[in-house]
Amino acid sequence: MNTTIAAISTAVSASGIGIIRISGPEAMDVISRIYRSKGGKKKIKEVPTHTIHYGYIYDGEEAVDEVLVMVMRAPKTFTGEDTVEIDCHGGVYVVKRILELLIKNGARPAEPGEYTKRAFLNGRLDLSQAEAVGDLIASQNEYALQSSVSQLKGNIKDKISEMREKILYHTAFIETALDDPEHISVDGYGETLKKVVDEIMEAMKRLLDSCDDGRIIKEGVRTVILGKPNAGKSSLLNVLLGEDRAIVTDIAGTTRDVLEEHLNLKGISLNIMDTAGIRDTEDIVEQIGVQRAKKYAKEADLILYVADSSTALDENDEEIIELFEGRKVIVLLNKSDLEPVTTEQILKEKVGEHPVICVSAKDETGFEQLEDTLKNMFLEGSLSFNDEVCITNMRHKAALMDAKESLKQVTESIAQDMPEDFFSIDLMSAYESLGTIIGEAVDDDLVNEIFSKFCMGK
């Protein structure tokens, strides 16, 4: 924290602009050694904060590049330290050359995520907000982006802080009462405390219930395409992707292994797998493909079952339908451009409550209804992160589960009429578990591990 760091904050590639960032107590000294204003009169160390200046970067008497330099003085910066950003031309060589000059003149190379780490250590962000920065960069769909921005604004911090304040208040009351029993009575306090603990546990339950949605938002929906051979599974995948990724032929059993792809529909990420057609076969390789298809179906968040409307349902379809138990399923009645043998009504009677959509991979029809159904199925049609909190981080989930278990111990102690000091022990355990989410009770190793996953210039 006493050193001044520098790093390239944009992709190192041929581009219009490259940005190099400096942060630390000597940031102004470092930039003043290599920057000259266009007229040569304005000293960069003397300029007002939060201003931009036009000039040149020099290596001795050699002009390296024409730049804009943004000066931001502590504490109103991202890191809470003096910060300078150099906007230069975006060639690979020029940005590396400027970074080398900064290091030569007193800065050191930043570690991965060190800027955000300094923002956390300087109190500009809590740990959940800092992690949201990394999630924001990695977001791959509309909902992951909205969730990350919401967390960056502090919605998790606010919820967790509210719980911790209640826990701390009642812990302090119990400890004070135990120290001064003549003036403060705890008679009947267990009943009052239980109401508060029940409220907090209910709030924790709502957060934990959001974890599955959170994983889907962040990682995508694990989706498996199932169907008999020649039902049109690979054609469906090609239409969804907008390109010919899967081999399509009239020969049954063309797809023998699992083809995995990532796509985005209506802002929802799908990690989608095209599988071998499910049927009885003597081909050993195809048998392995069928077994893999069944295995992935049992682990999927969503099954897309492709049925062929031009043929009758048979025992293979029955076997596929048996895999639906406990899974979210969308049934696609494909080849709707042909004369139907299996109708929508026949299929609905077989699959029960699962939605059935008529599509044609050949004519590319019915896919808008699929997108809307998918959105309604996973995100209730319209999702806003203005007020709700969605847990997308597994570290947060583990901490919430630990805190909830500690509060459960409090309720059991109350039920067993245990001494009040038992209450305070478990209350403080819950308080500390929640503190790990926002970074008020974490060790250095965990902090270093979290920020090591960030990119170099963030």
Cα radius of gyration in angstroms: 29 Å
The count of helical stretches stands at 16
Look at the helices and sheets and give the structural class: alpha/beta
Basic shape: flat
Order of helices and strands: EEHEEEEHEHHHHHHEHEEHEHEHEHHHH
Oligomer: single chain
What is the arithmetic mean of pLDDT? 84
Fraction in helix: 40-55%
Strand order of the largest sheet: 3-4-5-6-2-1-7
Which properties best describe this structure?
458 residues; 7-stranded mixed beta sheet; 16 helices; single chain; 6-stranded mixed beta sheet; alpha/beta
Structure explained in plain terms:
This protein is an alpha/beta fold. The chain contains 16 helices and 13 strands. The strands form 2 sheets. Strands 3-4-5-6-2-1-7 form a 7-stranded mixed beta sheet. A 6-stranded mixed beta sheet has the order 9-10-8-11-12-13, sandwiched between helices. Helix 4 (about 125-140) packs antiparallel against helix 5 (about 140-150), helix 6 (about 155-180) runs antiparallel to helix 7 (about 190-210) and helix 14 runs antiparallel to helix 15.
Secondary structure layout plus pairing:
Blueprint: E1 5-8, E2 17-23, H1 27-32, E3 35-37, E4 51-59, E5 62-72, E6 83-89, H2 92-104, E7 108-109, H3 114-121, H4 127-138, H5 142-152, H6 155-179, H7 189-209, H8 211-219, E8 221-227, H9 233-241, E9 259-265, E10 268-274, H10 284-299, E11 302-308, H11 315-321, E12 328-334, H12 344-351, E13 356-358, H13 367-379, H14 394-415, H15 420-438, H16 444-452
Parallel strand pairs: 1-7, 8-10, 8-11, 11-12, 12-13
Antiparallel strand pairs: 1-2, 2-6, 3-4, 4-5, 5-6, 9-10
Helix pairs in contact: 4-5, 6-7, 6-15, 7-14, 14-15
